[in-house]
Amino acid sequence: MSTDSTFITNEEGNKLIDRFNTIIKDTVNFDVLVGYFYTSGFYKIYKSLEHTEKIRILVGITTDKNVYDLIQESNWKSNINVNEENINENNKNNLLISHKETKNGFSKEIKKEFDCSEDSYNVEEGANKFIEWLKSGKLEIKAYRDRNIHAKVYITTFHENDKDDGRVITGSSNFTSAGLQDNLEFNVELKNKADYEFALNKFNELWKDAVDVKEPYINTITSKTWLNDEITPYELFLKFLYEYLKDIINLDKEKFLNGDVPPNFMDLQYQRDAVFDGKRKIENHGGVFLSDVVGLGKTYMATMLAKQLGGRTLVIAPPNLLKKSNPGSWTNAAADFNFHLTTYSKGKLDQIIADGHEKFSNVIID
Q1: Residue closest to 363 by CA, chosen among 308, 320, 324, 306
Q2: Whole-model pTM above 0.70?
Q3: What is the C-alpha to C-alpha distance for residues 38 and 130, in angstroms, rounded to an integer?
C-alpha cells in the first residue's frame, strides 16, 4: 500500500485509492475539482470521509461539444447586438451556458452513469450515503458552466496543528473507480504550503461561479434510475426473475442446436428449450429428468441433448423402444441425428456392468 509517495500511478502498491484512504481520514475539508465525477468513485472512499467535516465536489459540465457550441452561438446572438464579423472569439468562448442548461446536462450525465452501472449493494450504499450527506450539508456538489474545464485536483485540508496545512494531488485521475484504482494514471502529490494555498484559492474562485446541482442529483437518483423510490412489488418481482434467470435470458438461443438436427427435422421451439434447459441443469447438478406427455418427442430431445453433451452415451430402455421397426425407437433416433448411441434393454443390467459402464460419459434411462 502507498504511504507517502510523490508519484501515484495505480500500479500495484501505488494506487490512488490507497493514498486517499490514508490521508483523507485526517482531513477537515476535502475539495475535488474534476472533469468527470461518478458515484462509483465516491463509494470507493466514502468510509474514509466519515469524520471529514466538509466535502466539496466541483464538476466540469460534460455537455456535448456541438450542443455547447450551438448554445453559445444562440446566447451570443440573442444577448449581444453586434454584427457577425465583429464577434470576438475569445469573448464568445467566455460566455457560460445557463444554470438550467447546466443542471439538465448534469442530470443527464448522472442518469447515463446509473443506466450503465452495476446494480450492486456497494453502488446503492454509496449513492444513498452521497444523498444523505448532501441533505445534511456535509457534502456540496456544483457544476462549472464552462465546458473547457478539465482539471483533476484533489485538495485535503488538515486539522490545525496537524502535520501541515494540507496536500494537493493532481494529475490524470478522474473521480471514478477506474481513475482511482484500475487505469494506469500519472498523479503527483504536492506537499508544499504554497502549492496547497494556490490550489485552494483557485478552487474557491471557480466554486463561487459554479452552479449548485444538489437538487438535480437527488431528483435524478430517486426518480430516474434503478434506485428510485417508487419501485412497485411487481417491478421488484420482475427484477428478481431477471437476476435469477439472466444467464439464460442473455444467451443466444438462436445459434443453439444449429447444424445438429436432420435436414427434414420439424424444428420445435419447446424441444429446443427443453434441450437447452436440460444441458444447463446437467452442467450445474450432474443430471436431469426429462418429463413430458406421450408423443411430444422425448426420445428426440434426449438424443439432441446427448449430442450437445458429447462423449459416449449409454441408453437403457425397454426392448420395444430399441427395435428399428418402431419409428420412435432409440435406434432410429440415433440414425436420424447421425449420433452413435449404445443401447441395452433393462433386463441386461448385469451385462452392462460386465462390459464396462465406466467408458460412458452419459447415461440415459428410459
Answers
A1: 306
A2: no
A3: 11
Share of the chain above pLDDT 90, in %: 19
Fold type of domain 7-61+97-230: Endonuclease; Chain A (3.30.870)
> Would you list the DSSP string of 194-233?
HHHHHHHHHHHHHHHHSEE-HHHHHHHHHHHSTT-TT--H
Q: Residue type for 262, please? A: P
Cα–Cα distance measured from residue 8 to residue 183, given in angstroms and rounded to the nearest whole number: 11
Q: Alpha-carbon distance 304 to 322, whole Å?
A: 17
Residue 336: strand pairing partners: none
Distance between CA atoms of residues 120 and 44, nearest Å = 13
Across the strands, what pairs with 344?
316
H or E segment to which residue 138 belongs? none
> Would you say 253 and 276 are in contact if contact means Cβ atoms under 8 Å apart?
yes
Buried b (16+ CB within 10 A) or exposed e, 90-99: eeeeeebbee
Structural domain boundaries in the chain: 7-61+97-230, 255-365
